[in-house]
Amino acid sequence: MFLTVFLLCMAGLVALYSASIHVDAPFFKKVVGKQLIWILFGILSSLILVFTQKKILFNGAYIFYWFGIVLILSPFFIGSSMAGTHRWLVLGPFHFQPSEFMKIFVILGVARYLSKNDLVISSFRSLIMPLLLVLLPLAIVLRQPDLGTSMIYILLVFPMLIWAGARAYHLFIIIAPVISILTAFNFYTFFIWVVFVLIVLYLSNEKIWLAIVLFVLNLSLGFLTPVLWNRLKPYQQNRILTLFNVEADPQGSGYQVIQSQIAIGSGGIFGKGLGNGTQTHLKFLPEQHNDFIFSVVGEEYGFIGVAAVLILFFLLTVLLINTAFRLRDRFSSLVVIGVASVLFFHVVINVAMTIGLMPVTGLPLPFLSYGGSFIILCFILIGVVWNLSMERSR
Amino acid sequence: MFYSQNNVNEARRNIFLLVIFTLFVILGARLYQLQIVQHSRFAGIAEANRIRVVSQQAPRGIIYDRNGNIIAENKSQYNVDIIPFEVGKDKTAYTTLSEILNVSEKEIQRRVKKNWRGQFLPVRIMEDIDFQTLAELEERRLELPGVLYSLEPIRSFPTHANLSHVLGYVREVNVKNLQTIKDYGYRSGDLIGWKGVEREYESVLRGKRGFSYIQVNVFGQEVGTIQDKRSVVPEFGNDLYLTIDLGLQQYAEEILGGNKGAIVIMDATNGEILSLVSKPDYSPNLFSGIVKSEIWDTLRTDPDRPLYNRVTQGIYPPGSTFKLIAAIAALENNIIDPKMKIRCRGSFKLGRRTFKCWKLTGHGKMDLHDALVNSCNVYFYNLIRKMDIDLWAEYAKKFRFGEISGIDLYVESPGAVPDKALLDKKYGVGGWAEGNKLNLVIGQGDLIVTPIQMARFSAALATNGKLCAPHLGLKYFNREKNQFYQFNPVKSDSITDISESTWEFISEAMFEVVNSQTGTGRAAQVKGLDVYGKTGTSQNPHGDSHSWFIGFSKDNQQVTAMAVLVEHGGSGGGEAARIASKLFKYCSENLNRQRFVSTKVNDIEAK
Predict the structure, then answer these.
(1) Which residue range is the domain that position B272 belongs to?
(2) Is there a contact between A278 and B10 if contact means CB atoms under 8 Å apart?
């Protein structure tokens, strides 16, 4: 695990080095130098966590959680809005993003709840509390606004629920209304979705009245959504659209994604070599230090390079899953799954974005992307796993 | 243990692993598609992203006169461009620039705005700076980041002759004309010959543009050159030699002076134009590069129309010079006995109308010869009464009046020779009468000609009917093959159905016009040179009559034909003949024309 993390960090540093090769500044003022410092900070924080007693993590989970909520609320009150957003907290020379750290607090909180001794996970009722634990920070971060991060909150909870033994049917009931709303704008997709809901409900052996209620609920949501949407004033529609589009496409028509695909595609099998990526150095590639660092790797090291990075991430995820499987107590196991989910979704969403399989959401790539808060979070996650995995295997 | 047990089974873990594996495989497959399957496509786009092709204008070929004197060559023009982003960084840069260029800051800002292409792309703020300004810019380079100067070849004209209507001018290809000439490789912003020989011989004179490749970043900022793509050096156009004699041209321009008018001097035996003047003219230097709009407007709105080539586009009644046509027609068809005398009392009555002779006291008794020498109107009034209008028109058309001469200068007016059909069309059948004929015979009325037609007319008279197409292009030098080429021989034609005796008669009369005591063209006399001619006075509604002189000189083997027109120059014996005399004299003293013998005849389509 440490080797994969180390290699990923190295890959990130090399890519950042290349991206800042022409910047005329002392090493530690450059992106790559700063990133190195952040990594050292990250290692430090993971070491602190390794030597933190597991009891503190378990018992303090809810306290941490509420502490996190206060943190993500604070940018709204401590005036430091940058371009109308409330993501950053300024502490002296450091700007940090509390919403990043909230990820670990959500993991701990949900894991703590799901590892209650008397919890009957197969009951629908026991799913409500974890969802509330997620929806609260999600609502706050959406207002910051930061769609990508809030998406991670909701995404990380499902694997944890499944891992804890929740019934797939219950999860389906939770997700169904959201899909009903999203599909409602196109008749055919909505029709297919409704048929699908019917089949699932039929197979589920659900009490008949409940099944009818659920079906009618989804159906009416689907019908009402377009009606309500059209009732909204254009500026209200816009406000909602901007919420979901906040990072996407500042220059229009998928420019970023197109340039990113060109960068990756032109890399070929072996890439153009360190410092030779024209897309990178001539700045056709946007956000190359952060969200599109993967494209830099793709352009300069080609298929070999990106395959290596993806294999490392795959190995890391598999290692985490196996660790979670191996651990004897449910809390630790769930935390590790939460960590695995966060890292995995970041990787998949980020990479899918750079190769044009998903819209731009602005999620960074773990260990590679530049960014203090996020890199420290990644190390904290690793530190937590490290700590928990030190218990004897079952 | 206060922790609850982990109760995950292996099946659940395997589902997790399977999902993870599947998603990674999807990502990997997409990467395979992008980087291996579609690699060449994306590599191409990436290249196109970074490479900008900078083209360099090629210098046009040099234009020489027939003796190898340079008429038009190229010089380098230095232009000042700035990169707004770089200059904008330093507040004082604009002030410094304005000091050096001697243009107000506001004006610089205005030009920047006008030519704006992006804050990282060069913007032209000044053209054609002198060497001192350039040196000053170079000196203060460190204070002026983002200020560039570029070099462009433009025309320069080392001679004192203007030759404006011969040379024409070049201009920038605009989007509108680009549609029609794109196939020839022109691009927006190229210079193309637009008028004159610059236009006619565009294919000879045009150079081949060069290219260089530079690497640019996403903002279009230049970031170094590209090693693996060779740049192409611009190629000179081929050199053009004109039939013009520069010395004679300069002299002719000088002599016509401030008069409005036209002069054409050509070799009567082959149609080579030795001099072509249309006044008022303008300095070709105004058109050396891209023409400024102020200059355009001045030239275009000038009431004297300097842009208009009077030689080919100017239409005038020919006046008495046209009596030669009536004389030839009469002689050929035995309409009149040339020895028969007619008395001129100064006027001629037709019905209730009186037609005057220019000599109001009358010429007395005259035969055809005398009538030509003295240019007696009354004689010709009598003559035309006996002649059918179509016969007269037929002879005018034999000399190619009423059609373009085919000179290699773009836009030529055909003029008009009225015959029955035309008059019927204009006035209606029966709407015109003998009176019209009387006007036509003395070269007035609906008859209109251009000076170039008149020059060819005199050349035909000089050579007993040889009709050479007048032309300006002599030969060109192909730089690539290092060889001279001649243009396709211009078609020449002859009038064969006019008898020797008629030519002789006309020739004698024209000699007398210039050399006899009473000849109307006495002013054209040159001591020791045989000058033949005919004067003309064409009345016009705009003021004083235009003064015409057409004629030729025979000097050993050299036969020089000439047409001189002075607008509002009074009667033909005066201004035009005096000018012709000086020019004939110059020709006989200074011209020793060598015939060009082509080393190879190449069938170039000049155009």
Answers:
(1) 247-282+310-590
(2) no
